[in-house]
Amino acid sequence: MITPTKHEPLPGIRRVDKLYLELLFRCNFRCLHCYHGADLNRPERVEPEQAVGALDYFAEHYGCAQVCFLGGEPLLYPGLPDLLAAAKQRGFHTEICTNGYRRYNVLDRCRSHLDLLRVSLDGGTAEAHDRIRRPGSFAAAFDTLTWARDRGLVFGATCTLTEDNIGTIPALAMRLHELGARELILHRLRTMGNAAQTSLREVTWEHTERLHVALTGMNLTGLHINREILLPERCPASGDVVEKLEIAPDGRVYLSCAEVAGNGRDIRFDFARAALVNATESVTR
User: Fold this and answer.
1) Whole-angstrom Cα distance, residue 230 to residue 204?
2) Which domain holds residue 62?
3) Shortest CA distance to 222 belongs to which of 179, 166, 268, 161?
4) Taking the chain, what is the end-to-end CA distance rounded to the nearest angstrom?
5) 38 within domain boundaries
6) Is it the case that residue 261 has pLDDT exceeding 70?
7) pLDDT in tens, 28-70
8) I need a labelling partner for 129 at 20 to 30 A (CA). Which of 2, 111, 139, 184 fits?
9) pLDDT in tens, 139-170
10) Is residue 195 part of a domain?
């Protein structure tokens, strides 16, 4: 059993199931709903040795054995294949979350070290998705998923729900199911970052409950969908296990999707020291 020390910055937490590590802010898209907003223009990135230090820290102190690399756009990160290999050598289940836009050379070098490729798809039609992301990106995302399927790579998708695209999600789920996707991870739009400057609207519980009914009535065997987030009562009681801990390139720490890109917790990850520290402590890079 893993027992935090008395100086541990996450008191009461004994395990982190999955580490989401943002390797860089840089991205080749400027999506309307992106919570990073102006941060997309920031140059910071996590150096490979710093990323490995984070993996070692969370494995040792919190029994973490799953990592998802994201950004920004992780396929723009130099040395991503080597970082995935280092994670696999340490026994991690590896994932990347990407926009999947025409980066096949990098993906080909990553795939032998990758357990799951997750591509962002924000709607079940090109019209819905491309409005949020960029023209042609819906077709490009499915081209990447087909590429992954043809090479035996396990794949899935993530989708941000808006008032405009939620009606297309059953079609998206069916297309992913027919392609052989493993999962579809849904998130609710948060009006921060770029979304605060657009006409995109958040979904209501009425919207999501209707989607829950629709998805439950579909034959989607083999496709995992986190339907529980569609219901108001889905929030679990607090406990000593964190399902997701996300770290930004500047060290901000978030313990749920609802916190990401905000000010973060009153702790930071100090990449130079490879440790969680209180926000009041000086953080070195």
Assistant:
1) 10
2) 15-281
3) 179
4) 32
5) yes
6) no
7) 999 988 989 899 999 999 999 999 999 999 999 999 999 999 9
8) 111
9) 999 999 999 999 999 999 999 999 999 999 99
10) yes
The per-residue pLDDT for range 27-37, each reduced to its tens digit, is 999 998 898 98
CA 106 to chain centre: 19
| pTM attached to this predicted model | 0.91
Task: Tell me the C-alpha distance between 246 and 55, whole Å.
Answer: 12
For the chain, count helices (H), then strands (E). Answer: 7, 11
Write the DSSP symbol of residue 238.
Answer: P
Instruction: Classify residue 163: in a domain, yes or no.
Output: yes
d(CA 211, CA 214): 5
Beta bridge partners of 267: 278
Distance CA 103, CA 178 (A): 24
User: Which pLDDT score is estimated for 9?
Assistant: 82
What does the alpha-carbon distance between residue 249 and residue 77 come to, in Å, rounded to a whole number? 12
- What's the mean pLDDT in 172-186? 98
Nearest to 161 by CA among 223, 204, 218: 204
Task: Kindly report the number of other CB atoms within 10 A of residue 213's CB atom.
Answer: 11
Q: Is residue 72 situated within a structural domain?
A: yes
Q: 124 or 2: which carries more pLDDT confidence?
A: 124
Q: At what angle do helices 137-150 and 169-179 cross, to 10 degrees?
A: 30
- The answer, yes or no, to whether residue 256 has pLDDT greater than 80, is no
Task: Tell me the C-alpha distance between 165 and 173, whole Å.
Answer: 13
Q: Are strands 267-270 and 275-278 parallel, antiparallel or unpaired?
A: antiparallel
Please give the Cα distance from 23 to 146 (Å, whole number). 26
Q: CA torsion sign, 122 to 135 to 199 to 72?
A: positive
Closest-CA residue to 261 (of 275, 270, 250): 250
Query: 258 near 190, Cβ under 8 Å?
Result: yes
The number of folded domains in the chain is 1
pLDDT of residue 4: 44
